[in-house]
Write a structure and sequence with these properties.
By secondary structure, the protein is α+β, with helices and mostly antiparallel strands. It is built from 19 helices and 12 strands. It is globular, with a radius of gyration of 23 Å. The structure holds heme C (HEC) (2 copies).
Length: 438
C-alpha cells in the first residue's frame, strides 16, 4: 500500500503543472497555407510551446492504437518527463569528403575530437533561406546513430558501390559521417542522406531521391562474416530478403522491409508514410516525426536540438523533384493519356503530387501486413505519390512490382491494385507514356 502511494506521488509530481510558458503567436490567417511564410510562422509554435507540440502530436496520429502512436503518446510532449527531459545532443561530425575517404582507404581513421566544432553553433536562423541551409546540413550530417557496418564501404570504394554506398561527383560519401558518440568514441554515423539521396542516371547527386541501390541487409551480413561471427540463419534469411532499396524501419519485432520513398513535394502530401501513419496538416507534424525518429534511433539516450529539427523540416518541405522528362510524342497524345489517368486513377491519385486519401486495405488489396500491422498500421495505404514515377521502380510499399507495365498487366501474380488492367492497348500505351512524363 505504501509502495503504491509512493508511486502515485511520483506520478503526481511528474504531472504537476509546468512553469508558465510562452504562448506562441497564432498563425496569421492571411498567409497562404504551405507557402514559405506560412511554414516559417509555425517555428515559434513548435520551438517554444510544449503544449502546441503535444496537441500537434495528438492531432497527427492517424491511428492512436498502433505502436508508433502509443510510444509517442506515452513519452512525447510531457514537458517534465519522458523524452522532453532527455539531454540534448548536438554532435560533432566530419563529412566524409574526398580527403577523409582517402585517409580511411589508407587504413587511417580521422578522430573526431573536441576540436571539431558541434554541427550547430546554437544560433537560431532568422530567415527562411537560413533555415533551409541549416536543414540541408542536418539532412546530410546529423547522425541518427553510429553503425559499424559501413566502415569497409568507405575504405573500399568498389565494395561500397556494391551495397549502395555511392560517391558524389566530388568524391565525398553522402549519407555517412564520422562522429563522436556520447561516450566520446569516433564512429561512422548514418544520416537521412544515406537512404534519401542518390545519384541519377547522369551521375548527379539528388537530395530526396530514394537510394534504391542501398543494401542494408547485405551490409550487415558482410560485416559479421568479415569478423568470422556466426550469423543466426533466421537473421541471415531476413537480411537477405530485404534486398536493395528496402529497409525495415519499424519499431516492431516483426520483419517488414519497406521501399524507401522519394521525398519530393512533401508539402502537398496530407498523409505521411505508405500506411498513412501520420496526418501532415502542419509542418509541426513532420517536425515531431523527425524529432522522435532521432530519439528512437539512438535508443532514447538523447534528443536532438529542436532548432535542428525545425531546420530539417524547412528543408524537407522545400525539396522538389528534378524537372520531369519531356513527353515523347504529340501533345494531343499526352492530353489523351491524362484523360485516361483522370478516369481510371484520379479518384485516388488526386492531389498535386498524385497522392490522396487513405484507401482501406479491402479496397486496395495489396499485401496487408504493413497496413494492418501493430507497428504503424492504419487499416489501409496511402496512394503512392507519382512524381517521377518512371524512376521509382520497383513499385508498391514493399517494392514487389518491377515495372509500370507489370503493374497494369492483368496477368500479374502480386495481389492487389487491380486498376487499369482492362484497358484497350491504345489507352494503356497512352497512359504509360503519360505516367513517364509526370
Ligand atoms: C535506413 C534508411 C532510412 C534512413 C536513414 C532514413 N529514412 Fe526516411 N524512410 C525510410 C523508409 C524505408 C521509409 C518508408 C517508411 C514507411 O512508409 O513507413 C521512409 C520514410 C520517410 C518519410 C515519409 C515520406 C512519405 O512520403 O510519406 C520521411 C519524411 C522521411 N523518411 C524522412 C527521413 C529523414 C528526415 C531522415 C533523417 C533523419 C530519414 N528519413 C532517414 C528509410 C530511411
Ligand atoms: C482505389 C484507389 C486507387 C486507384 C483507383 C488507383 N490507385 Fe494507384 N495506388 C493506390 C494505393 C493505395 C497505392 C499504394 C498501394 C501499396 O503500396 O500497397 C497505389 C500505388 C500506385 C503505384 C505505385 C507507385 C510507387 O512508387 O510504388 C502506381 C505506379 C500507381 N498506383 C498507379 C496507378 C495508376 C496508373 C492507376 C490507374 C490505372 C491507379 N494507380 C489507380 C490507390 C489507387
Amino acid at each position: 500500500m505504501r509502495a503504491w502511494l509512493a508511486i502515485a506521488m511520483v506520478l503526481a509530481a511528474c504531472d504537476a503543472p509546468a512553469e508558465p510558458i510562452a504562448i506562441a503567436p497564432a498563425i496569421d490567417p492571411s498567409l497562404e497555407p504551405w507557402s514559405d511564410g506560412w511554414i516559417d510562422a509555425h517555428a515559434p509554435q513548435y520551438l517554444d510551446d510544449p503544449r502546441v507540440r503535444r496537441e500537434a502530436l495528438e492531432a497527427s496520429l492517424t491511428n492512436r492504437e498502433n505502436l508508433y502512436s502509443a510510444t509517442r503518446l506515452a513519452a512525447y510532449g510531457r514537458e517534465r518527463s519522458g523524452w522532453d527531459v532527455l539531454p540534448v545532443w548536438s554532435p560533432r561530425v566530419r563529412r566524409i569528403d574526398v580527403e577523409v575517404a582517402q585517409a580511411m582507404s589508407r587504413g587511417e581513421t580521422p578522430i573526431v575530437d573536441a576540436h571539431v566544432a558541434p554541427l550547430w553553433d546554437g544560433a537560431r536562423p532568422t530567415t527562411h533561406e537560413a533555415w533551409v541551409a541549416l536543414g540541408e546540413r542536418v539532412f546530410f550530417e546529423l547522425p541518427l546513430r553510429t553503425e559499424p557496418f559501413w566502415d569497409r564501404a568507405i575504405r573500399d570504394a568498389e565494395y561500397g558501390a556494391s551495397i549502395g554506398i555511392e560517391r558524389a561527383p566530388d568524391g565525398s560519401v553522402p549519407g555517412l559521417v564520422l562522429t563522436r558518440d556520447v561516450e566520446g568514441r569516433t564512429g561512422v554515423g548514418i544520416t537521412c542522406a544515406l537512404c534519401h539521396s542518390a545519384r541519377d542516371a547522369s551521375g548527379a547527386l539528388i537530395a530526396g531521391r530514394a537510394r534504391r541501390s542501398l543494401d542494408y541487409g547485405r551490409a550487415r551480413i558482410d560485416f559479421y562474416e568479415a569478423r568470422g561471427a556466426a550469423i543466426d540463419p533466421r537473421a541471415r534469411e531476413r537480411w537477405e530478403s530485404w534486398g536493395p532499396g528496402r529497409a525495415d524501419v519499424l519499431e516492431d519485432v516483426a520483419d517488414l522491409p519497406i521501399a524507401i520513398p522519394d521525398l519530393w513535394g512533401l508539402r502537398h502530401q496530407r498523409l505521411l508514410t505508405q500506411a498513412g501513419t501520420l496526418r501532415h496538416e502542419t509542418p509541426i507534424a513532420l517536425a515531431i516525426r523527425q524529432e522522435t525518429q532521432y530519439v528512437q534511433a539512438n535508443h532514447h539516450q538523447t534528443r536532438p536540438p529542436r532548432e535542428l529539427m525545425w531546420a530539417l523540416v524547412t528543408y524537407l518541405e522545400s525539396l522538389e523533384a528534378p524537372a520531369a522528362p519531356a513527353y515523347v510524342g504529340a501533345t494531343r497524345d499526352r492530353e489523351r493519356g491524362a484523360l485516361v489517368f483522370a478516369r481510371e486513377c484520379g479518384r485516388c491519385h488526386s492531389n498535386a503530387v498524385g497522392s490522396g486519401d487513405l484507401v482501406p486495405i479491402d479496397e486496395i488489396g495489396t499485401d496487408a501486413e504493413l497496413a494492418t500491422g501493430r507497428a504503424r498500421g492504419t487499416g489501409g495505404y496511402r496512394p503512392a505519390p507519382l512524381v517521377r514515377v518512371a524512376d521509382a521502380a520497383p513499385y508498391l510499399h514493399h517494392g514487389a512490382v518491377p515495372t509500370l507495365e507489370s503493374l497494369l498487366d492483368p496477368a500479374r501474380t502480386e495481389p492487389g491494385h487491380r486498376f487499369g488492367m482492362a484497358l484497350e492497348d491504345d489507352d494503356r500505351t497512352l497512359l504509360l507514356a503519360y505516367l513517364r512524363s509526370r
